[in-house]
Every structure is written in structure tokens, then in C-alpha cells.
Amino acid sequence: MPIRQVNNNAEIVFTCSESVLYNTEMIAEEHSVVRVLSGELKVIQSNKTYVFGAGETHLFPRNRLATLIKSEKDGLPYKAIVVKLTQDVLRAFYEQKKMQTAMVSKTDYIIPLPKSPLLDSFFSSMLPYFDLDYKLPQELSQLKIQEAITVLRSINRDIDNILSDFSEPHKINLVEFMERNYMFNMPMEKFGYLTGRSLTTFKRDFKKAFSMTPQKWLTEKRLELAYYQLTKKGKKPIDVFYEVGFENLSHFSYAFKKQFGQSPAELAATKK
Length: 272
Fold this sequence. Notes:
Arc Repressor Mutant, subunit A; 10 strands; 4-stranded antiparallel sheet; 2 domains; about 270 residues
């Protein structure tokens, strides 16, 4: 079994990857605070890569694209606690505080959080919850989310600009967005949503901008990036296909050979 999750409530999750390497695409509808307990988490965005180890914590803002690569480290599997800061709880929190909400979120990036006794205490307090043989009461779940918000605000004074942003994606430049984010293996509906378009409008605007279908363009761009990674960066095929947006190595190898006349392994061998 590649990954195991314990959900006492949808907002608080203990996750454990039991494989050596586990890959997934990420686009969360809620902000998420992630504490890595063991193993390693690599988060790849369009222009930045983060690596988080045991004891490190970060905030994953909502509606942001990333590839997550979870792997074991020091002989231990990847384990983490994920706390989703739901929009309902955030709205209630800021309304209760009578604080002005942000109009626009000011970051597109993952936010690494500094070491803090408050964070350590917060996550330690949740570990016993995952041993319960019954569902965590919703009221307690919401209290823990409120506690997480309070802790974040105490260690990052700019966090309100992100957490109090309740706006939905607006219609943006499709070409610029796709050129930055083509390596993320998202459904077309998600690409449309993030550019402020319905699926039908997204496909129409895409065809007008690129003179081809989204799937054909995405495949070509991902293969071009893979070729660059193999020839210029000296990376191995097993390390490349995840990062450029392919779901499995065999499909990547097939598409690559069809495009360039040789498999990724054959190309990599010629560069040694």
C-alpha cells in the first residue's frame, strides 16, 4: 500500500507513505499547515523547490500548484500531520476579531515556518488523537484549527494577508499561467478554474492562444523540459518524469521515444 491516511476529521489528517517514493500533484482548496514527522517531502513549484525534513513545518496556501514527492529518509517512512484551515473557520475567526480581510493574497509560494515551541506543542498535542477508535468531535477539530491560526499569527506577522484572503481566482492571462505551470499534472477543469474560466472557455481560449489542444501542448512542453533535464542537468529518467508532469515512467518513456526517436534511458546513456 503506497500511502495510508488516518482521518479523524477531513480537516486533520495523519499521513504515512509506506513506499520508498510517492508522488502526487497538489492543489488544495483550503490552506494547509504541514508538519513532517519523519522522512522527507520535496515540494516543486513552477520556479522554486523546497525540501522539508523531520520537525519542519510549512503553510501550503490554497489554490497553488505543486508536485509533492514524499520519500523515506534515514530508514524512516514519510509521515506528516496535515491541518486544513477551512474557509468557514477562517471567516468566523476574522469576523470575531473584527479584522479587515485582505483583498488579494500576496504570495504564490509555500511558506516555510520557523522553529517554534508553539508549533512543537501544537502538533504534539494532536498525536494522541490518531489513536482514537472513534471520530474526533467536530467542535474539537474546529478548536484545533483556531489554535493553529493563532499560532501562525504569533510567529508570522504577515500571515493575515494570506489567511484572510477569501477571493476566488479571477480571469488571468492564460499564456503566462500555462508557461509557468505546464509541468503540473492537473485535470483541465483545475487549469480552467485557476485561470478564472469554465472548462469550455478554457479550451476555447487555449486553442486560440496556442493553435492546438491543451493536452497536445502540455505533452510537448513536458517532453521538452524532460529533454533539457536529461541533457543539460544530467538527471536520471527516474528522477525526471515525476517533476515534468508524467504519471508513470512507462508512459513517459513511450512518449519521449515517439517525440525524440530514443528512450530517456538511451539518451541519458549517450551523455555519460
